[in-house]
Amino acid sequence: MPGRSDIPRKFFSAAEQGLLREAIAAAEMRTSGEIRLHLERDVPAKAPVYGDSFVRAREIFAELRMHETAERNGVLVYLATRSRKFAVLGDEELHRRVGVEFWNDVRDLMTERFRVGQFAEGVCEGIALVGEKLRAHFPYRKDDVNELPDEISY
User: Distance between CA atoms of 8 and 112, rounded to whole angstroms?
Assistant: First the structure.
């Protein structure tokens, strides 16, 4: 029987996990930006803000050291699978260039898919939209190095 910590790993099927990794790799092929996907069961109920997915995404962003990319152009897609909460967070240089409205567009796109139970599709579409914006502001360079792994973190 899977433990509580296994639940996020089982949220997406093996095939869906493969599609998500492929979506990240495809988006990153056209940009110097970096995209990560992190899943956990619930948004932890701790101070300072109870169950806030954006606050939690910021913590995970730091834990994954995403702020250490050379161009400050990392993006984290955070999902709390049981809580059914999520956040999409971009590093400061990307956020400065795209503004809040872009992140709202990504959120709205993903929310529409999530409402009908299409979680993998919603995440893949959100990643594709982020990849397009990263490409526009941080195009791929021949000397680009994949600074962060494309694997899903838990």
Answer: 21
Tens-binned pLDDT, residue by residue, of the chain (154 aa): 344 456 678 999 999 999 999 999 999 999 999 999 999 999 987 745 656 899 999 999 999 999 999 999 999 999 999 989 999 999 999 999 999 999 999 999 999 999 999 999 999 999 999 999 999 999 998 888 888 888 999 9
Locate tokens 């709205």: which residue? 108
What are the residue ranges spanned by the domains of the chain?
A: 4-137
Instruction: Please count the other Cβ atoms lying within 10 Å of the Cβ belonging to residue 116.
Output: 9
Match domain 4-137 to its CATH number in 2.70.98.90, 3.30.420.10, 3.10.310.50, 3.20.20.70: 3.10.310.50
